[in-house]
From TrEMBL:
<dbReference type="InterPro" id="IPR000792">
    <property type="entry name" value="Tscrpt_reg_LuxR_C"/>
</dbReference>
<dbReference type="Pfam" id="PF00196">
    <property type="entry name" value="GerE"/>
</dbReference>
<feature type="domain" description="HTH luxR-type">
    <location>
        <begin position="414"/>
        <end position="479"/>
    </location>
</feature>
<dbReference type="InterPro" id="IPR016032">
    <property type="entry name" value="Sig_transdc_resp-reg_C-effctor"/>
</dbReference>
<keyword id="KW-0804">Transcription</keyword>
<keyword id="KW-0805">Transcription regulation</keyword>
<dbReference type="InterPro" id="IPR036388">
    <property type="entry name" value="WH-like_DNA-bd_sf"/>
</dbReference>
<protein>
    <recommendedName>
        <fullName>HTH luxR-type domain-containing protein</fullName>
    </recommendedName>
</protein>
<keyword id="KW-0238">DNA-binding</keyword>
Length: 482
């Protein structure tokens, strides 16, 4: 199952004669196969049947099957039910002494995997996954060992070890290829990690390729992984100045079947505002932020919002946004972003000492990890870097590299205009804002109702939205409507 050989498992199940084939021990395995084959309702019914028949088993087998059923539920849990499943899995691990080593390895893998998918506690997730990898290696369970290592890459990035995460992702991919396995889900986290590290190193085209592949393979339950990957993919397209790519990434993150959380939806809006600010329309970006509904915001969202407000010369709003990010919650890569925006705010206010203090801390975090994207994102940081170099810094080589990169000619950003919408589609979009019916729009533009409907569907598709309200929000954020 872990190696992705689901058809082999189903074939083996088919070789088992009744009544053993219908017993609870194999029913839980059948449930796992049903789930990965896209039949979650059947899987739930099979698990429920297995639990109902536990009473027919002797005590030792009843305990084993109950434990296995809990682990399968961890493997299957949707985002909504993941927290409860994680808590049950942790209870099993607390009683690890009664588990067989292979079961303990599987439990550590599933708990750590679920933690990586549902929480931001990277340290705990990493500990469980490393424990699972060690136990699996001892038992010769190569697929399970590699699965633990693959899922370790995501929390490893969360702890700030970008070099280690990249090296581990490469190792897992090489060993999976050598084994001849073909399991996209097994390699989803390593792909996301390679994309995230590429983004932080300012290799944006590489980042987009890795992140798109990883997002396509991540299971629906991977809420945290999807939020991280989706935000990085949108930000990478913003950095490339690729408005079409940004809209495609937004559509992936906010797809109906992605069950996006309020924080992820908000983050998409913040990144679109950042796109406005980097494209020279900071005031419109800040106004787009003001229109976002109140609700939960990811830490990186607060920092990006602060950068938008800074560029719009709304310094008080920028400082308030930075203050929302507790220092204990900042990983190395987020700290570089946070400190750079704080440095630029202080520099703009004439507080030179504070500006250099923030910049020095940003350089400390960036130097050994190869983090470069936050400096490229703040394309007005050059004067502060030059002053910092003149003062003397132990990161002189890095500052020189950043200044050289900033002086290189850049491909022009795609202007945030309606180049993806035809003139007629723009006319229809403006009429949509007036809250007119389809018939009223048709009359106003001297078009047929069917033609207006065709233009409206095309507008929704190009903006990556599902309705009029979302289309207007996206158009305002993109500067298509004043």
């Amino acid at each position: 199952m872990v190696a992705g050989e689901h058809e082999t498992v189903r074939a083996l199940l088919g070789l088992v004669p009744s009544p053993w084939r219908d017993g609870p021990e194999l029913t839980v395995v059948d449930a796992a196969v049903s789930a990965v084959k896209g039949r979650p309702d059947l899987a739930s019914d099979q698990l429920a049947h297995a639990r109902r028949t536990l009473g027919e088993l002797p005590d030792d087998r009843r305990t084993a099957v109950g434990t296995t059923a809990t682990l399968v539920e961890l493997f299957l849990a949707s985002r909504a039910g993941l927290t409860d499943a994680v808590n049950r899995g942790r209870s099993i691990l607390e009683d690890e002494a009664v588990l067989a080593p292979s079961a303990a390895a599987l439990a550590a893998y599933l708990v750590g995997r679920a933690e990586a998918y549902s929480e931001y506690d990277d340290t705990r997730s990493l500990a469980h996954l490393r424990r699972g990898a060690a136990l699996a290696a001892e038992q010769g369970l190569t697929a399970l060992e590699l699965a633990c290592l693959a899922e370790s890459t995501l929390p490893l990035v969360g702890t700030g070890d970008l070099h280690g995460a990249w090296a581990l992702a490469e190792e897992v991919e090489a060993r999976v290829a050598a084994a001849g396995w073909h399991s996209p889900e097994l390699l989803a986290s390593p792909q996301v990690v390679r994309g995230f590290v590429s983004y932080m190193r300012d290799r944006l085209e590489d980042a987009c390729g890795y992140l798109e592949d990883g997002l396509a393979a991540l299971p629906p339950s991977a809420a945290v992984a999807r939020s991280r990957a989706g935000a990085a993919l949108m930000a990478a397209y913003v950095g490339l100045g690729d408005r079409g790519g940004l809209l495609r990434a937004r559509a992936i993150v906010l797809a109906p079947d992605a069950a996006s959380s309020a924080a992820i939806v908000d983050c998409a809006g913040v990144i679109e505002a950042l796109d406005q600010a980097l494209g020279g329309r900071a005031r419109f970006g800040a106004e787009a932020l003001d229109r976002l509904p109140a609700g939960p915001r990811l830490a990186v969202g607060h920092v990006w919002a602060a950068e938008v407000y800074r560029r719009a010369d709304r310094r008080d709003d920028a400082w308030r946004s930075l203050a929302q990010v507790d220092e204990s919650k900042r990983g190395a890569q987020l700290s570089v972003n946070w400190e750079l925006t704080a440095a630029m705010l202080a520099w703009g206010q004439g507080d030179t000492e504070a500006a250099h203090g923030h910049l020095a801390r940003a350089l400390d975090h960036a130097a050994d990890r190869g983090i470069r994207r936050p400096f490229a994102e703040r394309d007005d940081v050059g004067p502060l870097l030059r002053d910092h170099l003149a003062r003397g810094t132990r990161h002189a080589a890095l500052v020189g590299e950043l200044l050289a990169a900033g002086d290189r000619p850049r491909a022009p950003r795609q202007p945030v205009v309606a180049k993806e919408l035809s003139a007629r589609e723009l006319d229809v979009l403006r009429e949509l804002r007036a809250s007119r019916s389809t018939a009223e729009i048709a009359a106003a533009l001297y078009l047929s109702v069917n033609t207006v409907k065709t233009h409206t569907r095309s507008i929704y598709r190009k903006l990556g939205v599902r309705g009029r309200r979302e289309a207007l929000q996206a158009a305002l954020a993109a500067g298509l409507l004043e």
